Amino acid sequence: MATVPKPLAAPKKASRLRYDLSQIRIKNTISELADMGKNVRDKVPFSALAEFKPVHRDVVQGIQHVERALIKELLPLRHARMAASPFAFFRGTDELMAYDLAQQTSTNIPVVIAGDAHIGNFGFYASPERKLLFDVNDFDESTIGSWDWDVRRLLVSIILAGEQISLDDDDLADIMRHAVQTYQQIIIECFDDHSALERYYFSTEVESFLTAQAEGASLPKLWRKIKDNAPQRDSEQVVRKFTTMDDRGRLVFKENAPRTVHVSDKRFKEIDAHLRTYMQTIKPDVAVLLSQFHVSDIVRHSVGVGSFGTRCYLVLLTAIDGSHLVLQIKEALPTRRFQGFDVTTRFSQDGPDNGERIVTCQQILQRASDPFLGFYHNDDTGRSFYVRQFRDMKESLDVSKMDKDDFDTYARICALLLARGHAQSPTGAIVRGYGGQKKKLVNALIDWSTAYAKQVHADYDAFTAAVKDQTLAVPTKEDDDDDE
Questions:
Q1: Where are the alpha helices (DSSP H) in 51-168?
Q2: How are beta strands 132-136 and 260-262 bridged, if at all?
């Protein structure tokens, strides 16, 4: 008699951890909140935001602290990815900038922020209605924080990414100026011209959204190509590309060690069990859909730069009709994981589950989110994870293939999306009152970001020197307790 695979069934106990959003829930009127922003301007003038305060820390030591929580065998690949360029290094060290920002003057006007809003963390993905959207698409560092942290990280990334396509200082200054002005304009429009419901229902559907932002011009070829190709990037394509038949005739993931390896039987059972807890964090209709699937295979599959080395998995699910779904499970580390340095802020929370934090903030910042987005907590290890669909029409733009005009348009669109995301927090109206359309704020943020980009280059040089002379030590085996 054939063994019936166990479906994904709901557990008995739900998550008891909640991410506290009370800091952004304010009942004041828009005009009152705008006046609050003007009062903040009196206490934190624009000139104070312009000054970069050099921070004395050992960048190599900081990276070593972070990597103690990562998988040892993946660290050489992680280092190679980060060493590719100053921008790649910047992408891989979000916690370093968070530490540095904590030492700077900020407005401390709280909104839900992306936390890692560099220009490479915006991209395409599918809505539940199968429409292609473009929005912020990375939320590992998302949290409640000061709005200007996101804007500064975006501006520094414009400098570092722009350098890769040989833009000069004047070009970069213009593009940064356009980005900040776009952010200011959208924040004003959000609270002056749109109701709360209109802000909530903003669309980021690619065809209408990007064409409108290009002021009526046709979409650049790079955008059009992705729009045409994205619908083919689904779970069945992943199955065709990433799987094979084993010697027992079972569909399994291909291995590509050390980046992609099968998990141990112990880890397989553990993940299978935790997926039942995850089912409590998704909508009932999605839970019913998943009840038709069973787990066929699981691999550890590392992606990206900043998250490379964390515990990330791909789960192959097979339905009762033989179709497939591929879920990605990503480890959710604490938002500011620069261990050994104090990077807590007045908005930091100790209690909430990190997977829940990421899911909560993503659903606030994105106009539509992956219906499979959920989380679970491993009480045995203390680690948190979040779950999403893998590669469902997901795609990003290759900045290295852009010319100046496309890069400028892209930077404006990213700034627009950031402003719309921040405007989902009622406290965004305080930002509107603080910044208005003041040119002095634009110049202040550009000055700070230009100075900080030089710090990134110095840190990058220290990092690459440490990799070259092998002083960037790999954690010992006892620090690497991952059992695959």
A1: 59-67, 75-82, 86-92, 94-102, 147-164
A2: unpaired
Strand partners, 126: 132
Give the model confidence (pLDDT) of 170-202 as tens digits. 999 999 999 999 999 999 999 999 999 999 988
3-state helix, strand, coil in the chain (%, to 5): 50, 15, 35
CA dihedral angle for residue 146, residue 151, residue 152, residue 157, rounded to 10 degrees: 140
**What is the rounded distance in angstroms from the CA atom of residue 146 to the CA atom of residue 115?**
9
Instruction: Output phi, psi for 25, to 5 deg.
Output: -95, 105
Q: Is 0.70 surpassed by the pTM of this model?
A: yes
The total number of structural domains that make up the chain = 2
Residue 116 shares a structural domain with residue 77? yes
Q: Is residue 402 part of a domain?
A: yes
Q: Which helix (H) or strand (E) element contains residue 244?
A: strand 243-245
Positive or negative, the CA dihedral 229, 233, 234, 240 is positive
Q: Is residue 85 part of a domain?
A: yes
Q: What is the DSSP letter of 391?
A: S
User: Helix, strand or coil for residue 330?
Assistant: strand
